[in-house]
Amino acid sequence: MPHSPVVPFEKSLTLRSPAALVEAGLVPDSARVGLEQVAERYAVAVTPAVAELIDPADPADPIAAQFVPTTAELTTLPEERADPIGDDAHSPVPGLVHRYPDRVLLKLVHVCAVYCRFCFRRETVGPGGPTMLGAAELEQALAYVQARPEIWEVVFTGGDPLVITPRRLAELLERFRAIDHVKILRFHTRVPVVDPARITPELVAALRNAGKTVYVAIHANHPRELTAEARAALARLADAGIALVSQTVLLKGINDDPETMAALMRGFVENRVKPYYLHHGDLAPGTSHFRTSIAEGQALMRALRGRLSGLAQPTYVLDIPGGYGKVPVGPSYVNEDGTVIDPNDGAHEYRFNDAV
Protein backbone atom coordinates (compact mmCIF):
# COMPACT_ATOMS: atom_id res chain seq x y z
CA MET A 1 0.00 0.00 0.00
CA PRO A 2 1.50 3.40 -0.92
CA HIS A 3 2.28 5.77 1.91
CA SER A 4 0.20 8.89 2.41
CA PRO A 5 1.74 12.13 1.18
CA VAL A 6 4.07 13.62 3.77
CA VAL A 7 3.37 17.13 5.02
CA PRO A 8 6.45 19.32 4.46
CA PHE A 9 8.72 19.28 7.49
CA GLU A 10 8.10 22.19 9.85
CA LYS A 11 11.05 22.84 12.17
CA SER A 12 8.82 24.24 14.91
CA LEU A 13 6.84 21.01 15.30
CA THR A 14 7.58 17.95 17.42
CA LEU A 15 8.25 14.91 15.22
CA ARG A 16 5.78 12.18 16.18
CA SER A 17 5.97 9.53 13.45
CA PRO A 18 8.49 7.68 11.29
CA ALA A 19 7.19 9.68 8.32
CA ALA A 20 8.04 12.93 10.10
CA LEU A 21 11.49 11.62 11.02
CA VAL A 22 12.11 10.72 7.37
CA GLU A 23 10.94 14.14 6.19
CA ALA A 24 13.23 15.81 8.73
CA GLY A 25 16.18 13.83 7.40
CA LEU A 26 16.79 12.02 10.68
CA VAL A 27 16.24 8.52 9.25
CA PRO A 28 16.36 7.18 5.67
CA ASP A 29 13.13 6.40 3.86
CA SER A 30 14.26 2.77 3.61
CA ALA A 31 13.88 2.49 7.40
CA ARG A 32 10.31 3.75 7.47
CA VAL A 33 8.46 0.40 7.32
CA GLY A 34 10.48 -1.13 10.15
CA LEU A 35 10.12 1.98 12.30
CA GLU A 36 6.36 1.98 11.79
CA GLN A 37 6.33 -1.39 13.56
CA VAL A 38 8.21 0.16 16.46
CA ALA A 39 5.88 3.17 16.57
CA GLU A 40 2.84 0.90 16.74
CA ARG A 41 4.07 -0.26 20.15
CA TYR A 42 6.15 2.57 21.59
CA ALA A 43 5.48 6.30 21.43
CA VAL A 44 7.68 8.58 19.34
CA ALA A 45 8.32 12.29 19.94
CA VAL A 46 11.38 14.37 19.08
CA THR A 47 11.12 18.06 19.94
CA PRO A 48 12.66 20.76 17.72
CA ALA A 49 15.31 21.41 20.38
CA VAL A 50 16.39 17.76 20.25
CA ALA A 51 16.15 17.49 16.46
CA GLU A 52 18.52 20.44 16.11
CA LEU A 53 21.15 18.55 18.14
CA ILE A 54 21.13 15.39 16.03
CA ASP A 55 23.82 14.79 13.42
CA PRO A 56 22.11 12.58 10.79
CA ALA A 57 25.48 11.82 9.21
CA ASP A 58 26.74 10.16 12.40
CA PRO A 59 25.35 6.61 12.76
CA ALA A 60 26.48 6.62 16.40
CA ASP A 61 25.09 10.05 17.26
CA PRO A 62 24.41 9.94 21.04
CA ILE A 63 21.38 12.23 20.83
CA ALA A 64 19.73 10.29 18.00
CA ALA A 65 20.35 7.04 19.88
CA GLN A 66 18.29 8.30 22.81
CA PHE A 67 15.26 9.61 20.91
CA VAL A 68 15.07 8.24 17.35
CA PRO A 69 13.50 4.75 17.22
CA THR A 70 15.32 1.76 15.76
CA THR A 71 14.20 -1.77 14.94
CA ALA A 72 16.42 -3.03 17.78
CA GLU A 73 13.47 -2.14 20.00
CA LEU A 74 11.50 -5.01 18.48
CA THR A 75 13.82 -7.51 20.20
CA THR A 76 12.52 -8.44 23.65
CA LEU A 77 14.62 -10.66 25.89
CA PRO A 78 13.06 -13.23 28.27
CA GLU A 79 14.19 -11.33 31.36
CA GLU A 80 12.65 -8.04 30.23
CA ARG A 81 9.30 -7.01 31.68
CA ALA A 82 6.58 -4.43 31.13
CA ASP A 83 6.88 -3.18 34.73
CA PRO A 84 10.63 -3.56 35.31
CA ILE A 85 10.87 -1.79 38.68
CA GLY A 86 7.64 -3.18 40.12
CA ASP A 87 5.48 -0.06 40.37
CA ASP A 88 2.27 -2.09 40.20
CA ALA A 89 3.13 -4.12 43.30
CA HIS A 90 3.30 -0.91 45.37
CA SER A 91 0.36 1.02 43.95
CA PRO A 92 -2.37 1.22 46.64
CA VAL A 93 -4.50 3.62 44.57
CA PRO A 94 -4.37 4.45 40.85
CA GLY A 95 -1.47 6.67 39.83
CA LEU A 96 0.34 6.49 43.17
CA VAL A 97 3.32 4.31 44.15
CA HIS A 98 4.26 3.90 47.83
CA ARG A 99 7.46 1.85 47.93
CA TYR A 100 9.37 3.70 50.68
CA PRO A 101 7.81 4.73 54.02
CA ASP A 102 8.45 8.48 53.84
CA ARG A 103 7.64 9.22 50.18
CA VAL A 104 5.29 8.44 47.35
CA LEU A 105 5.41 8.76 43.58
CA LEU A 106 2.48 10.42 41.87
CA LYS A 107 2.16 9.62 38.16
CA LEU A 108 0.54 12.91 37.31
CA VAL A 109 0.54 12.59 33.51
CA HIS A 110 0.99 9.79 31.01
CA VAL A 111 2.67 11.80 28.26
CA CYS A 112 6.11 13.36 27.75
CA ALA A 113 7.67 16.09 25.66
CA VAL A 114 9.95 13.40 24.20
CA TYR A 115 9.99 9.61 24.43
CA CYS A 116 13.33 8.12 25.41
CA ARG A 117 13.95 4.84 23.61
CA PHE A 118 15.15 3.22 26.87
CA CYS A 119 12.28 4.39 29.10
CA PHE A 120 11.35 1.98 31.88
CA ARG A 121 7.70 3.08 31.62
CA ARG A 122 7.56 2.81 27.83
CA GLU A 123 4.68 0.33 28.00
CA THR A 124 2.42 2.81 29.81
CA VAL A 125 3.26 6.30 28.52
CA GLY A 126 2.34 7.99 25.28
CA PRO A 127 -0.74 9.03 23.30
CA GLY A 128 -3.74 6.76 22.92
CA GLY A 129 -4.84 6.69 26.55
CA PRO A 130 -5.68 9.30 29.18
CA THR A 131 -3.14 12.10 29.18
CA MET A 132 -3.50 13.01 32.84
CA LEU A 133 -4.56 11.43 36.11
CA GLY A 134 -8.33 11.69 36.33
CA ALA A 135 -10.05 13.95 38.85
CA ALA A 136 -11.41 11.03 40.89
CA GLU A 137 -8.02 9.29 40.87
CA LEU A 138 -6.29 12.49 41.99
CA GLU A 139 -8.74 12.80 44.89
CA GLN A 140 -7.94 9.21 45.91
CA ALA A 141 -4.23 9.95 45.82
CA LEU A 142 -4.61 13.14 47.86
CA ALA A 143 -6.74 11.33 50.43
CA TYR A 144 -4.15 8.56 50.68
CA VAL A 145 -1.34 11.05 51.33
CA GLN A 146 -3.44 13.11 53.75
CA ALA A 147 -4.19 10.02 55.84
CA ARG A 148 -0.54 9.01 56.28
CA PRO A 149 1.58 11.44 58.33
CA GLU A 150 4.74 9.44 57.62
CA ILE A 151 4.70 10.71 54.01
CA TRP A 152 7.24 13.55 54.01
CA GLU A 153 7.88 13.82 50.26
CA VAL A 154 5.78 13.58 47.11
CA VAL A 155 7.63 12.83 43.87
CA PHE A 156 5.79 13.92 40.72
CA THR A 157 6.52 11.74 37.73
CA GLY A 158 4.65 10.20 34.85
CA GLY A 159 5.12 10.86 31.97
CA ASP A 160 6.67 14.23 32.53
CA PRO A 161 4.87 16.42 35.08
CA LEU A 162 6.18 19.69 33.64
CA VAL A 163 4.26 19.28 30.38
CA ILE A 164 1.08 20.45 32.13
CA THR A 165 0.11 24.12 32.04
CA PRO A 166 1.35 26.46 34.78
CA ARG A 167 -2.27 27.11 35.80
CA ARG A 168 -3.01 23.43 36.38
CA LEU A 169 0.33 22.99 38.11
CA ALA A 170 -0.46 25.85 40.51
CA GLU A 171 -3.89 24.38 41.25
CA LEU A 172 -2.35 20.99 42.02
CA LEU A 173 0.32 22.42 44.29
CA GLU A 174 -2.32 24.38 46.16
CA ARG A 175 -3.90 21.04 47.11
CA PHE A 176 -0.64 19.70 48.49
CA ARG A 177 0.06 22.94 50.33
CA ALA A 178 -2.82 22.04 52.65
CA ILE A 179 -1.20 18.73 53.70
CA ASP A 180 1.01 19.85 56.55
CA HIS A 181 3.14 16.71 56.96
CA VAL A 182 4.27 16.82 53.31
CA LYS A 183 7.37 19.02 53.35
CA ILE A 184 9.10 18.20 50.04
CA LEU A 185 7.72 18.27 46.49
CA ARG A 186 10.02 16.79 43.85
CA PHE A 187 9.52 16.86 40.08
CA HIS A 188 11.30 14.47 37.72
CA THR A 189 11.55 16.02 34.28
CA ARG A 190 13.24 16.14 30.89
CA VAL A 191 11.53 19.41 29.92
CA PRO A 192 14.26 21.98 30.77
CA VAL A 193 16.66 20.08 28.49
CA VAL A 194 14.46 18.85 25.63
CA ASP A 195 11.90 21.68 25.47
CA PRO A 196 13.45 24.57 27.39
CA ALA A 197 10.93 27.13 26.11
CA ARG A 198 8.33 25.48 28.37
CA ILE A 199 10.20 26.76 31.43
CA THR A 200 8.29 30.03 31.36
CA PRO A 201 8.10 32.67 34.10
CA GLU A 202 4.57 31.39 34.83
CA LEU A 203 5.74 27.81 35.33
CA VAL A 204 8.66 28.93 37.49
CA ALA A 205 6.28 31.05 39.59
CA ALA A 206 3.97 28.07 40.12
CA LEU A 207 6.88 26.04 41.49
CA ARG A 208 8.31 28.92 43.54
CA ASN A 209 4.95 29.66 45.16
CA ALA A 210 4.17 26.05 46.07
CA GLY A 211 4.40 26.73 49.80
CA LYS A 212 6.74 23.73 50.22
CA THR A 213 10.38 23.03 49.52
CA VAL A 214 10.57 22.16 45.82
CA TYR A 215 13.23 20.05 44.15
CA VAL A 216 13.43 19.48 40.40
CA ALA A 217 15.36 16.42 39.18
CA ILE A 218 16.80 17.15 35.74
CA HIS A 219 17.21 14.17 33.41
CA ALA A 220 20.06 14.41 30.89
CA ASN A 221 22.42 11.72 29.61
CA HIS A 222 24.98 13.46 27.41
CA PRO A 223 26.81 16.80 27.75
CA ARG A 224 25.56 17.96 24.35
CA GLU A 225 22.06 18.10 25.83
CA LEU A 226 23.13 21.06 27.97
CA THR A 227 22.67 23.63 25.21
CA ALA A 228 22.63 27.39 25.74
CA GLU A 229 18.82 27.26 25.80
CA ALA A 230 18.79 24.41 28.31
CA ARG A 231 21.29 26.24 30.52
CA ALA A 232 19.10 29.35 30.42
CA ALA A 233 16.06 27.27 31.46
CA LEU A 234 18.02 25.77 34.36
CA ALA A 235 19.11 29.26 35.39
CA ARG A 236 15.48 30.42 35.48
CA LEU A 237 14.70 27.63 37.93
CA ALA A 238 17.84 28.06 40.05
CA ASP A 239 17.48 31.85 40.19
CA ALA A 240 14.00 31.33 41.64
CA GLY A 241 15.49 29.38 44.54
CA ILE A 242 14.37 25.97 43.29
CA ALA A 243 16.81 23.21 44.23
CA LEU A 244 18.05 21.19 41.26
CA VAL A 245 19.43 17.64 41.25
CA SER A 246 20.24 15.35 38.35
CA GLN A 247 19.35 11.90 37.15
CA THR A 248 21.12 10.06 34.36
CA VAL A 249 20.78 6.59 32.88
CA LEU A 250 23.95 4.66 32.06
CA LEU A 251 23.64 3.90 28.34
CA LYS A 252 25.95 1.80 26.18
CA GLY A 253 27.64 3.81 23.46
CA ILE A 254 26.17 7.08 24.73
CA ASN A 255 27.73 7.92 28.10
CA ASP A 256 29.54 4.76 29.27
CA ASP A 257 33.03 6.26 29.04
CA PRO A 258 34.71 8.42 31.72
CA GLU A 259 35.26 11.45 29.49
CA THR A 260 31.61 11.78 28.47
CA MET A 261 30.23 11.12 31.94
CA ALA A 262 32.70 13.54 33.54
CA ALA A 263 31.75 16.27 31.07
CA LEU A 264 28.06 15.72 31.80
CA MET A 265 28.47 15.78 35.58
CA ARG A 266 30.63 18.89 35.44
CA GLY A 267 28.03 20.47 33.18
CA PHE A 268 25.37 19.81 35.79
CA VAL A 269 27.44 21.35 38.58
CA GLU A 270 28.30 24.39 36.45
CA ASN A 271 24.55 24.95 36.07
CA ARG A 272 23.75 24.56 39.78
CA VAL A 273 22.41 21.03 39.37
CA LYS A 274 23.74 18.63 42.02
CA PRO A 275 24.50 15.18 40.53
CA TYR A 276 22.19 12.72 42.26
CA TYR A 277 21.54 9.35 40.60
CA LEU A 278 23.25 7.41 37.84
CA HIS A 279 20.75 4.66 37.06
CA HIS A 280 21.77 1.26 35.80
CA GLY A 281 19.62 0.37 32.80
CA ASP A 282 16.29 -1.23 33.69
CA LEU A 283 14.90 -4.42 32.13
CA ALA A 284 12.35 -2.60 29.98
CA PRO A 285 11.24 -4.43 26.83
CA GLY A 286 13.31 -3.76 23.75
CA THR A 287 16.15 -1.96 25.53
CA SER A 288 18.90 -4.58 25.77
CA HIS A 289 21.06 -2.72 23.25
CA PHE A 290 21.36 0.15 25.76
CA ARG A 291 22.36 -1.85 28.82
CA THR A 292 25.87 -2.22 30.19
CA SER A 293 26.93 -4.73 32.81
CA ILE A 294 27.07 -3.65 36.45
CA ALA A 295 30.82 -4.37 36.39
CA GLU A 296 31.21 -1.87 33.54
CA GLY A 297 29.24 0.71 35.50
CA GLN A 298 31.39 0.14 38.57
CA ALA A 299 34.57 0.57 36.52
CA LEU A 300 33.19 3.84 35.19
CA MET A 301 32.39 5.08 38.69
CA ARG A 302 35.87 4.14 39.87
CA ALA A 303 37.33 6.18 37.01
CA LEU A 304 35.16 9.18 37.95
CA ARG A 305 36.22 8.99 41.59
CA GLY A 306 39.84 9.44 40.59
CA ARG A 307 39.33 12.41 38.30
CA LEU A 308 36.20 14.30 39.31
CA SER A 309 35.32 16.73 42.12
CA GLY A 310 33.17 15.34 44.89
CA LEU A 311 30.54 17.89 43.86
CA ALA A 312 30.21 16.05 40.55
CA GLN A 313 29.89 12.46 41.83
CA PRO A 314 26.50 10.77 41.30
CA THR A 315 25.37 7.67 43.20
CA TYR A 316 25.30 4.62 40.93
CA VAL A 317 22.08 2.71 41.67
CA LEU A 318 20.19 -0.36 40.53
CA ASP A 319 16.41 -0.47 40.80
CA ILE A 320 16.01 -4.12 41.75
CA PRO A 321 13.45 -5.78 39.44
CA GLY A 322 10.22 -6.76 41.14
CA GLY A 323 9.64 -3.64 43.21
CA TYR A 324 12.36 -4.00 45.84
CA GLY A 325 13.67 -0.47 45.37
CA LYS A 326 16.97 1.23 44.57
CA VAL A 327 20.28 0.09 45.99
CA PRO A 328 23.75 1.61 45.49
CA VAL A 329 25.89 -0.81 43.49
CA GLY A 330 29.32 0.58 44.18
CA PRO A 331 32.04 0.28 43.47
CA SER A 332 33.59 -0.60 46.82
CA TYR A 333 37.08 0.68 47.59
CA VAL A 334 37.75 -1.51 50.65
CA ASN A 335 38.56 -5.20 50.19
CA GLU A 336 37.65 -7.90 52.68
CA ASP A 337 41.28 -8.12 53.80
CA GLY A 338 41.27 -4.45 54.81
CA THR A 339 43.23 -3.13 51.84
CA VAL A 340 42.05 0.11 50.24
CA ILE A 341 41.98 0.54 46.45
CA ASP A 342 43.57 3.70 45.09
CA PRO A 343 40.64 5.53 43.42
CA ASN A 344 42.98 7.38 41.06
CA ASP A 345 44.00 4.32 39.05
CA GLY A 346 42.73 1.20 40.83
CA ALA A 347 46.15 -0.40 40.43
CA HIS A 348 47.47 0.21 43.95
CA GLU A 349 46.21 -1.01 47.28
CA TYR A 350 47.03 0.16 50.79
CA ARG A 351 46.64 -1.38 54.18
CA PHE A 352 43.87 0.51 56.03
CA ASN A 353 46.13 1.61 58.87
CA ASP A 354 48.69 2.91 56.39
CA ALA A 355 46.11 4.78 54.31
CA VAL A 356 44.77 7.07 57.07
Q: Overview of this structure, please?
A:
The chain has twelve helices and eleven strands. It has about 350 residues and is α/β, with parallel strands linked by helices. The chain is globular. Residues about 1-10 and about 350-355 have low confidence and may be disordered.
Shape, principal axes of CA atoms: globular
Q: What percentage of residues falls in helices of 4 or more residues?
A: 25-40%
Number of strands: 11
Helix and strand run: HHHHEEHEHEHHEHEHEHEEEEH
Tally of alpha and pi helices = 12
Mean pLDDT: 91
Structural class given helices, strands, pairing? alpha/beta
Uncertain spans? 1-10, 350-356
Short description:
The chain is of the alpha/beta class and 356 residues long. It has helices at residues 18-23, 32-41, 48-53, 62-67, 135-146, 166-177, 191-194, 201-208, 228-239, 258-270, 294-307, 352-355; strands at 96-100, 103-107, 153-157, 184-189, 213-219, 243-249, 274-279, 315-320, 325-328, 339-341, 349-351. It has a nine-stranded mixed beta sheet. Strands 10-11 form a two-stranded antiparallel sheet.
